[in-house]
Design brief:
Blueprint (H helix, E strand, L loop, with lengths): L1 H10 L1 H10 L15 H9 L3 H11 L3 H13 L4 H7 L8 H13 L7 H4 L3 H9 L1
């Protein structure tokens, strides 16, 4: 719905001009009240299926792209596994040993620095993450 409203404002010349000038949006504007089924619209526009998502998941897992994302998350969050696991696509708690191993190999090879938050993570914190 939010994307739909953004699209409606940006695609309507009058609404866009008002937004560009004032930085605000007229919530009562006709362009925002069209009753369009935005979910259906975006699905039609992008034509993404469940199979597409499953295929992406299979291709992403254990890929160079995933490794790069894990390394970036490790650096961004300074080794905080809670935040790493929340930010890397297509992972859940069952993937943690695999993700942890990827990071450990990169630390051992010198590609990544060793952060205390990762190396000294308590078992209590790890178990809390798994319960969540």
């Amino acid at each position: 719905q939010i994307l739909g409203k953004v699209y409606a404002v940006l695609s309507d010349e009058k609404q866009r001009a008002v937004y560009d000038e004032t930085g605000t949006v007229d919530e009562d504007a006709e362009a925002l009240q069209d009753g369009r089924d935005w979910l259906e619209y975006w699905q039609l526009l992008f034509k993404v299926t469940v199979k597409d998502i499953e295929d992406f998941h299979k291709n992403y897992k254990n890929s160079a792209e995933e490794l790069a994302d894990v390394k970036a998350a490790y650096l961004n969050f300074k080794g905080d596994m809670d935040r790493i696991m929340e930010s890397v696509m297509c992972v859940d708690y069952t993937d943690e040993p695999r993700i942890r191993e990827m990071i450990e190999r990169a630390i051992d090879s010198g590609e990544l620095p060793s952060f205390k938050a990762f190396v000294r993570e308590s078992k209590r914190k790890m178990m809390s993450r798994r319960r969540r």
